[in-house]
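Late entry, written up from scratch paper. The run itself happened at the end of the previous shift, but nothing got recorded in the book at the time, so transcribing now.
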Amino acid sequence: MTGVTAGYGPAVVLEDIDVALADGDSLAVLGRNGVGKSTLLATLMGLTRLFRGTLCWRGADLARLPTHRRARLGLGWVPQGRCTWASLTVDEHLAAVARPGPWTAERAFRTFPRLAERRGNRGNQLSGGEQRMLAIARALVVNPRLLLLDEPMEGLAPIVVHELVSVIRSLVVDGGMAVIVVEQHARLALSLTQRVLVLDRGRIVHCGPSQALLAEPATLDRLVAIP
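Output as recorded:
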């Protein structure tokens, strides 16, 4: 992503964004509410208007490709919220999108045992935490090379957050895919990732190693705290 300016309709949300990510990298995207964090992920998936700039992943030009073609090129997206299909079972959610690769439905069930217990349940029969697990599992069985997580911990009970943190950390450590995490819990996101990018009013105001920012609490608070 180089020199990207994007938004919705005539409205510009992101301005001159540069992000470089290699295989196995992990990036936290932080900032106050409404600064463009989710829009950055939506732009990668082709769901915004790209005014200018280039979008490339593993040598492929994404800018003119529809969302489903981007998924086939290895982008897996977990949108904000639950985003499950009410009428499909857990099994059907995974079967509908699965592509060949190391992440199979059975591996997803080993990662999320709670889903294995409910594989015959429909989306609207799952708790909020289970729906979030299903959304992540559904993205994983696409076998992405780049996983986009938009507020994966939002509104979840602490026990579920703990479980998801463990899964995300294992994905990052494994190095089989690059991971971008958009998260309001800044310190949690920094603890999971190698690098960080902070947005303010659609522009990058900080980038660097996650651990370095985590070690500077005053700077972190200044960058992401609500004024």
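Residues 158-174 form the longest helix (17 residues).
(Scratch paper discarded after transcription.)
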